[in-house]
Amino acid sequence: MPTGRVKWFSLEKGFGFISSDEGEDVYLSASALPDGVTTLKPGTKLEFGIAEGRRGPQALSIRVVEAPPSISGSRGNTEDLAILIEESIKMLDRVGNNLRHGRAPNEAEASRVAKVLRGIAGQIEGTN
């Protein structure tokens, strides 16, 4: 399986890119994240399958191989969780605004929102 590192990932946008070890940029959808993983930091080493998408290579079957080193201990984890919650609020605000205008989320977006919320809930429970 190919490997690479997360170039960037936006929870709000629902996607990001991996810089593969072969030097190729690979599209990374939030729906491809493994269960329990809601976001990825730049530099995270991944193993993944590749399929040809509409706009080029797309990552499938993501597996986190190695997280980037953390400078601080548990405080860093709470800071990461705070950032994740703030990004989720933006995502939920967008969904709420669409609902106010009679536009329900499509199946893929609804699934992504649910996955993110389950992941955050699990992380919050783990910080006690």
UniProtKB/TrEMBL annotation:
SUPFAM superfamilies xref list = Nucleic acid-binding proteins
Instruction: Specify the CSD domain's residue ranges.
Output: 1-64
Q: Which GO terms describe its molecular function?
A: nucleic acid binding
Q: What residue range is the signal peptide?
A: none
List, alphabetically, the InterPro entries matched.
Answer: CSD (IPR011129), CSP_DNA-bd (IPR002059), NA-bd_OB-fold (IPR012340)
Could you tell me what this protein is called?
Unannotated protein
User: What organism does the UniProt record list as the source?
Assistant: freshwater metagenome
